[in-house]
Specification:
Elements (H helix, E strand, L loop, with lengths): L8 E3 L4 H8 L6 H9 L16 E6 L3 H16 L3 E6 L5 H11 L3 E4 L11 E5 L12 E4 L27 H10 L4 E4 L11 H13 L3 E2 L5 H8 L3 H18 L8 E2 L3 E5 L6 H10 L7 E5 H4 L9 E4 L7 H12 L3 E4 L19 E6 L2 E6 L6 H12 L6 E4 L4 E7 L5 E8 L10 E4 L5 E5 L7 E2 L3 E2 L5 E4 L6 E7 L1
Parallel strand pairs: 1-2, 2-3, 3-4, 4-5, 5-6, 6-7, 7-8, 10-11, 10-12, 12-13, 13-15
Antiparallel strand pairs: 9-17, 14-15, 16-19, 17-18, 18-24, 19-23, 20-21, 20-24, 22-23
Helix pairs in contact: 1-2, 2-7, 5-9, 6-8, 7-8, 9-12
């Protein structure tokens, strides 16, 4: 049995196992339990009929009651061309649950940790972002600790002292996962906030946040949405259609998943253990500084190309092996900037006599420079801000204006002839003024495409005296892709 990595997954809570778990949660009601029972009925599959969703992720265990409750749903769904993945959570008897999944005809199971020996169905690793590893045999890997994207609901959201609002996004963990397992399809799991009643724009953003970063969200609906879809209420049906339209938008542009993040800066890290948090923080903060960048897993850095890079930030405290260190220093000697931690052993080159930066002491290395951090535990925001100053805004490939609650991701095709800027508005409201991009690279055409627009909008280039050009965008509430052609 093979798992198709192109499937489009949706979380499908149903049956006694989900009801039992829900009864332990605050605010769980009899009406919610009734909806969970109704979603184990094969008739509930009408929700996804005609949509691109073709894989349902159901709760699974060795418990025969759950298996029997879901059997009619699974049998009917398979007849309709749907695949099913069993999510095994908690202290379940994993070998028994996997064996039951084979008997039930599931396409795969998803679970935390290692697959049981001799697993008879594909096993999707379903781990936290810090535990994603390239050793997974499945063509799909899961990131289990995603967040529902948007502006934080807390009164005092945590984050660096940026001049822009903080946003909740899965961009950082998905870029890291893609760097660690570039040959896998990445699924990210997260549920709506408890007791939430979300608008269509919330779901649209959740789809776009994952898809623009090269992953698929395992679509998960709030209790009210599930109940209203079951009752065929028009507002819920409209919200569901808009959500599915966003899924279809990305599925119609599958070539974008072959594009890679582009920038003058690369971050290299092992992205595990004690190195995960510093690496994730750097990847999380750079979009707030409008700094395009690449992410390179340390295990793949020796074979990675550094062509086109101005700077490399080696995030880890652990020194690279001799081969990688030699490659990094060759990059610096050739004119690049290499930035490392304070415990970099025997730093090369004499101290530079030029600028003094907040966190990095610069040393001359060939035609380039080596920056050694002054502090053992530097502030994450100060670190990336200092890196941006060292690189200089005069070298910016892109600048974004009039979009304070937005992030963007810049990617290019393998040959570099096409580019795309994914623009995500986490406020889910169009701003008072249209967003404005400065683009330094010499593209000849640009257009913005979005489910919010009736048709693609060709953008006018406004050349700047210092080089590059500006592009004024139409107002976008959630997402738009600026497609660039050289």
């Amino acid at each position: 049995m093979a798992l198709n990595p192109e499937t489009i997954p949706m979380r499908w809570p149903a049956g006694p196992l989900d009801i039992a778990r829900g009864e332990k949660a605050k605010g769980f009601t009899a009406d919610t339990a009734a909806v969970l029972r109704s979603w184990q009925d094969p008739a509930s599959l009408a929700v996804v009929q005609g949509s691109p969703v073709n894989c349902l992720v159901v709760s699974w265990s060795a418990d025969s009651a759950q298996q029997q409750a879901l059997k009619p749903l699974i049998d009917k769904g398979k007849q309709a061309g749907l695949e099913f993945v069993g999510l095994i959570e908690g202290e379940a008897n994993k070998p028994a649950a996997v064996a039951a999944a084979q008997s039930a005809g599931l396409a795969a199971v998803a679970m935390e940790g290692d697959a049981p020996a001799g697993a008879s169905v594909p096993v999707i690793p379903w781990n936290k972002a810090s535990q994603v590893r390239s050793s997974a045999k499945s063509p799909v890997v899961g990131v289990a600790d995603g967040v529902f994207p948007g502006l934080p609901q807390a009164a005092t959201p945590q984050g660096g002292p940026t001049n822009l609002p903080w946003v909740d996004s899965n961009g950082a963990i998905l870029l890291i996962a893609r760097a660690v397992v570039p040959d896998k399809t990445v699924w990210v799991g997260f549920d709506p906030p408890p007791a939430a009643k979300l608008a269509a724009e919330n779901y649209i953003l959740a789809v776009a946040d994952a898809a623009s970063h090269g992953a698929r969200w395992v679509i998960s609906l709030d209790d009210t949405m599930r109940a209203d879809l079951t009752a065929k209420k028009p507002p819920a049906a409209d919200a569901w259609k808009k959500t599915i339209d966003m899924v279809s938008f990305f599925e119609q542009r599958k070539e974008l998943r072959t594009y890679q993040p582009h920038g003058l800066l690369a971050l290299i890290s092992n992205f595990s253990g004690a190195d995960f948090d510093p690496g994730q923080e750097a990847v999380n903060l750079l979009p707030r500084l409008r700094q395009p960048f690449r992410v390179i897993a340390r295990s793949r850095a020796a074979a990675a190309s550094f062509a086109g890079l101005q700077a490399i930030y080696y995030v880890d405290k652990e020194a690279p092996d001799a081969a990688l260190r030699k490659k990094l220093l060759a990059f610096a000697s050739g004119g690049g900037t290499l930035l490392v931690q304070s415990n970099w052993p025997n730093p090369e080159g004499p101290p530079a006599k030029a600028e003094s930066y907040l966190l990095f002491n610069m040393r001359k290395v060939g035609k380039g420079q080596l920056g050694v951090c002054k502090e053992e535990k530097p502030d994450a925001y100060d670190t990336v801000a200092d890196i941006q100053i060292i690189m200089s805004h005069g070298n910016d490939l892109l600048r974004l204006y009039n979009a304070p609650s937005s992030n963007f991701l810049y990617e290019t095709s393998a040959q570099g002839k096409q580019g795309v800027i994914h623009l995500l508005n986490y406020s889910r409201r169009p701003g008072g003024d249209g967003a404005l991009f400065y683009v330094k690279e010499p593209y000849k055409s640009a257009r913005v495409v979005s489910p919010e627009l009736a048709s693609p909008a060709e953008l006018k280039w406004d050349p700047q005296e210092a080089g590059g050009a500006e592009l004024t965008l139409p107002r976008l509430s959630v997402y738009g892709a600026i497609e660039l052609e050289k």
